[in-house]
Specification:
The complex is a heterodimer of chains A (113) and B (115). Helices cover 0% and strands 51% of the residues of chain A. Chain A has 113 residues and is mainly β. In chain B, strands 2, 4, 5, 6, 9, 10 and 11 form a seven-stranded mixed beta sheet that branches. A four-stranded antiparallel beta sheet of chain B has the order 1-3-8-7, with no helix packed on it. Classes of the chains: A mainly beta (113), B mainly beta (115). Chains A and B meet through strand 5 and strand 6 of A and strand 5 and strand 9 of B.
Chain lengths: 113, 115
């Protein structure tokens, strides 16, 4: 069965510290992988995506993610977190047609001063 | 930015009432979707539409219906609302064909509370 697992329901990091949010997926075919961010009261916004090629992808707001096929993982990283990064982050996987996207349960990020 | 607009943004209703959530988009995207967000469950697909004549059920379509009135409009209806349909509902759009990257563009959500 196709699924996306985000093991951490919430994470707290200090401002300026590094961040890694974990994502593991189960998908039968070559997946399209995404990270979305949801700020309070807002819809989801795409941070970055991976389809093929370089397994380290860069996104907006200083985020990057690394695709590791052998581990079925697509972890999101940021070297230095800002208070404005506090939000909920969703990992997602899609088929090549892009019309059946499966989302993880989300990881809520708290940033402390 | 796909400029996806959802109305209403917030709605409180009673069990058994009929509710319609509306979605419109201004950038001509072909595909439109309705998702439901519940805490701890992420987003789950209710219905999706490739064009006006093409409507498809998603993962959790029971208790919901949709209408694609025009290329730019996609409505979600709850014929007889029940409390476990209390959730945050998102409309999303995407492209098809050579411009399809699978990226979804979301509206700001419609929070529905069924008492």
């Amino acid at each position: 069965a196709q699924s996306v697992t985000q093991p951490d329901i919430h994470i707290t990091v200090s401002e300026g510290a590094s961040l890694e949010l974990r994502c593991n997926y189960s998908y039968g075919a070559t997946p399209y992988l995404f990270w979305y961010v949801q700020s309070p009261g807002q819809g989801l916004q795409l941070l970055l995506k991976y389809f093929s090629g370089d397994t380290l992808v860069q996104g907006i707001k200083g985020f990057e993610a690394e695709f590791k096929r052998s581990q079925s993982s697509f972890n999101l990283r940021k070297p230095s977190v800002h208070w404005s990064d506090a939000a909920e982050y969703f990992c997602a996987v899609s088929n090549t047609g892009g019309f059946k996207t499966i989302f993880g349960a989300g990881t809520r990020l708290f940033v402390k001063a | 930015d796909a400029d996806v607009t959802q109305t209403p943004r917030n709605r409180i209703t009673k069990t058994g009432k009929r509710i319609m959530l509306e979605c419109s988009q201004t950038k001509g995207h072909d595909r439109m979707y309705w998702y439901r967000q519940d805490p701890g469950l992420g987003l789950r697909l209710i219905y999706y539409s490739f064009d006006v004549k093409d409507i498809n059920k998603g993962e959790i379509s029971d208790g919901y219906s949709v209408s694609r009135q025009a290329q730019a409009k996609f409505s979600l209806s709850l014929e007889s609302a029940i409390p476990n349909q209390t959730a945050l509902y998102f409309c999303a759009v995407s492209n098809r064909g050579t411009t399809n990257t699978g990226e979804l563009f979301f509206g700001e959500g419609s929070r529905l509370t069924v008492l």
